[in-house]
Design a protein that fits this description.
The protein has about 400 residues and is α+β, with helices and mostly antiparallel strands. The chain is built from eleven helices and 18 strands. The strands form five sheets. It has a nine-stranded mixed sheet with strand order 1-2-6-7-10-15-16-17-18. A three-stranded antiparallel sheet has the order 3-5-4. Strands 8-9 form a two-stranded antiparallel ribbon. It is globular.
Length: about 400
């Protein structure tokens, strides 16, 4: 305890003229600071308790029997709904630690794959000169391998090497400019594509090099889905059996929520602009396992004079897609695979896209097509249609 009377008495009893007012003032300030420190500590402690209380209330408010974990990542949000937790004395403590573990894992993924982080591994690779070797971490290696797989499956309709084209069209991290002319587009195409990169696998090290200094990788069409798979790995490793994880709407599920036979995942109505509300759904998909990812042309686009061009580029032409397909939702065992395939199918369109889907095991798709009258037609593969809730499949549906 700080007693100001002791300061006064010590000054009165002092015989030294050099005992200045500044010393007394300093002593008083120290006491005041201690008092302020105690108040601040009390305030922080109270605020922390309130935050924990409201966090617990928020987790309980999702749905009876569900616990909500959530945060921010990759320019969007992530969430996990847990219907069960490993046995523990304090479920709230388990949930808080799980939330922290997920947040730390997502930071690690961003440090490898985010083109918006200038210090990330992919940003360093994109700045590297031609022919210099860059060592890859495990996250980068997995996403690169998955990207190569979908590149082959989609006959080149998915290609993470289109970074120069993304920048040329103003959809990247650089400031958007005017529409690129033919000369600029051709220059970007010459250095774009996975063929501009070569990588080698050694027993413990992967390294990559690029043939042009201007070549750039961009994993934005696969990274969120792959990151959801990593959330799933954490949940399984911690003993959770019934859960639903998502990042920016890309979803991976296991089991079911309390009182329901499956997780009901909404596919949003692909109207332009921000959604009117979270319940503005085109349909819902019933999932007990597997992933669902959607790619669409209706939110992220640029206008050039009278033309509206979406952010999804066809790697083969180097230009934004122009078709009646407004969104594609893909069902697959892994979310990274579903995410990349959804982008590829947007490029391919429904006819060629459904041929690709039919050739792949455990993959289903739903195309939403502009009907030219302000509405949308649904074209679902048989397996996807079987998972669509009956009340959502009655109107305007096609299937093969």
């Amino acid at each position: 305890m700080c007693d100001l009377t002791q300061i006064k008495n010590s000054r009165a009893e002092s015989n030294f003229l050099s005992f200045s007012v500044n010393e007394t003032t300093t002593s008083i300030e120290r006491c005041q600071l201690k008092a302020v420190d105690r108040k601040w500590i009390l305030f922080v402690a109270l605020a922390s308790l309130l935050a924990l209380y409201w966090r617990a209330r928020e987790r309980e408010a999702v749905q009876p029997g569900l616990i909500l974990l959530q945060g921010e990542t990759m320019g969007t949000t992530w969430s996990v709904q847990l219907a069960d937790l490993p046995l523990a004395a304090d479920p709230e403590w388990v949930a808080s630690n799980l939330e922290r573990e997920i947040g730390e894992r997502l930071q690690q993924i961003n440090a490898s794959l985010s083109t918006w982080d200038p210090t990330s591994l992919i940003s360093r690779l994109n700045r590297a000169p031609a022919d210099s070797l860059v060592q890859l971490d495990e996250d980068f290696r997995e996403v690169l391998a998955l990207s190569g797989q979908v590149y082959r499956e989609s006959r080149g309709a998915f290609d993470p090497g289109i970074g120069p084209l993304i920048e040329a069209w103003g959809f990247g991290s650089s400031e958007a400019g005017p529409e690129p002319d033919a000369r600029q587009l051709e220059a970007a195409r010459r250095v774009a594509g996975l063929q501009a990169f070569s990588w080698q696998e050694e027993p413990s090290v992967w390294s990559i090099r690029k043939s042009h200094s201007a070549s750039r990788l961009d994993f934005s069409a696969v990274a969120k889905g792959w990151a959801v798979d990593q959330l799933g790995r954490i949940l399984v490793s911690r003993g959770a059996g019934n859960w639903c994880a998502e990042i920016g709407g890309e979803v991976l599920c296991s089991g079911s929520p309390p009182g329901l036979e499956c997780w009901r995942i909404g596919v949003q109505n692909p109207r332009e602009g921000p959604p009117a509300d979270q319940l503005d759904l085109q349909t819902r998909i019933c999932l007990t396992s597997g992933a669902l990812a959607t790619s669409g042309s209706y939110r992220n686009y640029r206008r050039f004079q009278e033309r509206k061009l979406p952010h999804i580029l066809d790697p083969r032409s180097g230009r934004p897609i122009e078709s009646s397909t407004v969104s594609v939702t893909v069902l697959a065992p892994a979310c990274g695979h579903a995410d990349a395939l959804a982008t590829a199918l947007m490029v391919l369109g429904p006819q060629e896209g459904m041929e690709i889907v039919a050739a792949l095991d455990e993959v289903e798709a739903l195309f939403l097509l502009d009907d030219g009258q302000g509405g949308f037609r649904q074209w679902a593969s048989p397996g996807m249609e079987a998972r669509m809730l009956a009340s959502d499949t009655a109107d305007s549906r096609e299937s093969e």
